[in-house]
Amino acid sequence: MTSRESSSVSQPVPRPLWRRALGPRLRAAGLALPLVAFVSVTFLGPMLSLLTKSFHDPEVADALPETMAALRGWDGQETPPDEAFAAVAREFVAARTERNLGRTANRVNRVASGMRSVIMGSSREMVEAQAAAEAAGAATDGAFWRETMIAIDTRWGGPEPWRALEAAGQRFTARHYLKALDFERGPDGGYVRAPEVWRIYVPLFWRTFLVSLGVTLLCLVIGYPVAHMIANSPPKRANVLLLLVLLPFWTSLLVRTTSWIVLLQNQGIVNDFLVAIGLIGDDGRIAMIYNMTGTFVAMTHVLLPFLVLPLYSVMRAIPPAYMNAAVSLGATPFQALRRVYWPQTLPGVGAGCLLTFILAIGYYITPALVGGQSGQLISNMIAYHVQTSLNWGLAAALAALLLGGVTLLYVVYDRLVGIDRIGLG
Amino acid sequence: MAGTAVSPGYRVARWGYLAFCIAAFVFLIAPILVLVPLSFNAEPYFTFTEGMLRFDPEAYSLRWYRSVFDGDEWTRPLLNSLIIGISATVVATVLGAAAALGLAHPAMPGRKIVTALLISPMITPVIIAGVGMFFFYSNLGLAQTHIGIILAHAVFGAPFVVITVSATLAGFDWTVMRAAANLGANPLVAFRRVQLPLILPGVISGALFAFAASFDELVIVLFMGGLEQRTLPRQMWSGIREEISPTILAVATFLIVFALLALSTVEWLRRRGAAGGQRAG
C-alpha cells in the first residue's frame, strides 16, 4: 500500500498533507478494525438481541393475526364484536388441527394464568362443534361462534380472556419488565404490584445485591492484610506469597467448587475433623454447604484474588518512609495506619471492591452448585427461564435489568479509575 | 518494624496480624491442595481414610487416574475442550494482538471508546452475555455447534490479549519505527524485527489467559452446547450434580497442574518482559 512511498528516502515530491495526516491514523485504526468488527458481531449482536427480546414478543401476534385485527377496535368492555369470535374460532381450529396451538396457549398463559386450560379446553370442543355444524349444513358465522364458545366456557362471555389475548398479542410490550419487577395483571387488565408473598424477582435482586456486598466486604477484610503482607515482604518471600494468591486465581472454577463440596459437605473433611476432635457429635454435623453459607464461602474464595491483586499493586507503590515518618512524629502505629496508610490505599480499595462486586452480582456456577435452595441468586433465575421454563422474554428482561445495574457501576468505575485501566493484577 | 518502643498492645496486634494472614493464606490454598492427595484414595470416598492418615501404601492407588482414561466419558470432553480452546485462542490472539498494536499507536483515533468496546466482553457478567448469545447464535443456526462456542470463547479471550500486549507496548518509543523505516525497512520487516520481539511475552501471556478462560468456561457451553460440545467443565458440572465419583478428583488434580504450569509461564514472561522493558527504557 503506502509502505513503499513512506519507506522510500529519495521521494521527490512530498505526499499530500491529508495523506500524511491520515495515513498513520488509518493504519492504526486498520489494525484495530478486525477485532472491533468481530466484537460488534459476536458480542454486541447478542447484546442487542437480548435487549430486543426483552420488549419485542411477536409470537402470539404472528399466530393469531386475524384475532388481533378483530380486537383492534374493541373498547375492552363486556365482549368484543362477532368478528372477533369468528376470527378466534378460525385460528384456534386451524392451529389445533396443525397441533401448534399449545405454544400460543402457553404464551397467553404467561399473561393471565389459567388461559392455557381455557384455550386448550375450548378449542377441542370448538373443533367438534365446527364438524357438527358442517355436517348439519349450519352456518358457522360470528353469531354462531359467540353462542357456541360461551356455551363451551362461560368465561368467553366476559372481557377477561379477550383482554389476555389482546395483551399477549402486543408485539412491543413492557410486560416482561413489569413481571421482572414483580408487577402482575390486575382484574381490569392494568398492572399492579404483586402481593408480598408472590414477589420473587425484586427480593432476589435485593438478595443478590446484599450477598455481593457481603462477599465484597469479606474479601476486603481478608484481602487487605494479605495484600499488605505481600507488599511488605522481601522480594523472595513476596513471590512465594503471591503464588499462593495466583494459584487459586488460575485454578478452574469447577475445581475450586468441587473442593468446597469435599471440604464442607455433611460427610466432608471439616465435619469429620470436628467430630474427630470431639467438638461436635456425629449426629450434630453442621450444614455448611447447599445453603447460603456454601454460596458465601465459595464465592469469597473465588473472588478474593480479584481484590488482593489490585490492592497489592497499589500498596507496593507506597514507600514505607511515610509510615515511619508518621510514627516518629508521635503517631501510634494504629493512628499512622488509619491516617497515613489507609488513605493512600483508597484507589486500590475502590477499584478492587467495585470489580469484585460486579463479578459477584453476575455469579451463576458457584451458587448453582453449592447454594442449595436458599443460596440461589438472580443469575440462577435467569438460567432457569432460559433452560427450563423457556420464558425467554422474561429471562431477557431480567438480564437487561442486571446489565443496567452493571453498566451504572461501570460508569462509577470509569469516574474513579478509568475503564481503560483495567489490568490483570 | 516501627522504630519506637514496642507497646504490649502493638505486640498483640502484630501477632494477630500474622495469625490472620496465615489463616487467610491457608483459606486460599488449602482447598485446592487438599484435592491432590484425595485423588489417590484407594476407596471411593471423598475424605481421608484411616489408612491414608497412617500413610499406608495400600490406602493409596491410581485407580481414579485409570478411570479417567477408561471409555470416553472424560477423554471426549478433554478433546472437545482442547479443540475449542485452541481455536478460540488462535482467533483471540491474532485479532487481539493486532488491535493492541493499533491502540498503542499515537495516531489511533477514539482510543478510549474503542478500548472500552474491546474490553466489554471481559467485564460483562457471563450470564448476561450468555443469554444474549443463546438467542443470537440460535437464530444464526450456530447453537449446538463447535463454531458457535469457539466464536463466543474467542470474543471473551481477545480482551486478555489486548490488555497483556498493550502492557508490553506501554512506553514504546514510536520514533524507533520511523527510524527503521528511514533505514529502509518496510513496515512488515520493521514490525517483525522491532515490535514483535518486544510484544512476544505479552502475546504469549495473553494467549495463555485466553486459553485458560476458554478451558474453564461453562455458562456459554451450558446454554449453547449440545451433547457433541461437552467440554471438561461441562462434564465436571454433571459429575458434581449427578453422580459424584472420585474420578473428578483426578481430573481436578490434572487441572491444578495445568493452572500451575500456565501461571509459572505467565509469571516468567512477565519478569522477562519487565526486564526487557527496563533495558529498552
Which helices and strands, and how do they pair?
The complex is a heterodimer of chains A (425) and B (281).
Chain A (H helix, E strand, L loop, with lengths): L2 H5 L9 H39 L3 H5 L1 H7 L10 H16 L3 H11 L3 H22 L5 H11 L7 H9 L6 H6 L2 E3 L5 E3 L7 H31 L3 H16 L2 H12 L4 H8 L15 H25 L4 H8 L4 H29 L3 H6 L7 H10 L4 H25 L9
Antiparallel strand pairs in A: 1-2
Helix pairs in contact in A: 2-20, 4-5, 5-7, 5-8, 6-7, 6-9, 11-15, 11-17, 12-15, 13-15, 15-17, 16-17, 17-20, 19-20
Chain B lengths: L7 H26 L1 H4 L11 H4 L9 H6 L6 H30 L6 H13 L2 H14 L6 H24 L5 H8 L4 H29 L3 H6 L7 H10 L5 H34 L1
Helix pairs in contact in B: 5-8, 5-10, 5-12, 6-8, 8-10, 9-10, 10-13
Which tags fit this structure?
heterodimer; A: 425 residues; mainly alpha; MetI-like fold; 20 helices; 1% strand; disordered N terminus; B: 281 residues; 13 helices; globular
Q: Quick recap of the structure?
A:
Chain A is mainly α and 425 residues long. Chain A contains 20 helices and two strands.
